[in-house]
Amino acid sequence: MSSISSLSFGNASRASILRIQNALKDATTEAGSLRHADVGRTLGQLTGNAVSYRTQETSIARMLESNKLVTARLELTDDTMESIYKSAETFSAGLITGAATSSGTAALVQNAASNIQQLIGSLNLNVEGQYYMAGTMSDVVPAKDGSADIRTKFQAFLSASGATGVENVDPDKLSDYFGAGWSDGTTTYKFDDLFELEVDANGLESGAWKDNWSNATSDTAQSRISKAETIASSVSANESAFRKVASAYAMISSLGLEKMGEGVRAMVATEATKRLKAGMDEIVALRADVGMRLGRVEASNTALTQQKDVVSAAFQRLEGVDETEAALRLNSLKTQLETAYAVTGKLQGLSLLNYL
């Protein structure tokens, strides 16, 4: 013999409400994310595939974010080189004519000294403690002012050549000093040696540039822009282009140009112009190379975005739920829950006493 009571009805109703609430929770999650609330339970043995796709998407997304930093770094480096080029171009335009007069020479010397400081500041490009042009040692300030060494070495040349000062320097000896070098029979004096950078078989760097002008390494930072491709994401302050520009400025600012005769000043201005032009030409080449690297990053980003879309579509097919179906299910469960609450309320109001 079985019995029916309001208690048993109430228990059944509460169990139904709990079941609907759990289903409603999952439906709400799915309607919001358009993804199965419990991927593992829904997909079963296919869960591993979904996880693999998710991992691939995360990896690609990280690579794309990393490439944004590489792009920003290269663009900032290119902007810096453009600034160095424009300063050199402006200085070069008035170099020959400026050296023709005493007043022009004084202004030229001052501008050259200022340009050296600007060049050093540009090479010391720094973003959040990272020196972009320091090579692989990005935490080290790459460029420093070696003008004092230029003055010291030039005085040594003057003494060895028999000149008591720049006022009576022998033009022929000075021409040799700016060219292949002038020797007193024991020591060879050569201006360009003061900006020389040497690398031995083991990759160790030395020379006057390293000693007096630079703390940078010639090896540059490398960045991976895809699974199979790595590029140089910086330009070193040791590049020949910057050394030549620095040598031109130092030639004007550190050799006592204002004390030289007009003919010697013209020679020095011509030599400085040659070095400045060579440095500017090399900066153009460096900027072209940076432009090519930026193009490679852009191409990599295009390929990575396509891969990401494919992977996203793959796990969406596995994990995703139909938006319309999810909304209908959510509304249906809400209706069921409201009905269950109403029934429970009526059951709680039932009592045998009402019928006695």
UniProtKB/TrEMBL annotation:
The keyword Repressor does not apply. Residues 4-136 form the Flagellin N-terminal domain. It holds the Pfam family Flagellin_C. It is found in: Secreted; Bacterial flagellum. InterPro entries: Flagellin, Flagellin_C, Flagellin_N. GO terms for molecular function: structural molecule activity. The keyword Thylakoid does not apply. GO terms for cellular component: bacterial-type flagellum; extracellular region. Residues 280-356 form the Flagellin C-terminal domain. Keywords: Bacterial flagellum, Cell projection, Cilium, Flagellum, Secreted. Its main location: secreted. Gene3D superfamilies: f41 fragment of flagellin, N-terminal domain. Belongs to the bacterial flagellin family. Flagellin is the subunit protein which polymerizes to form the filaments of bacterial flagella. This is Flagellin.
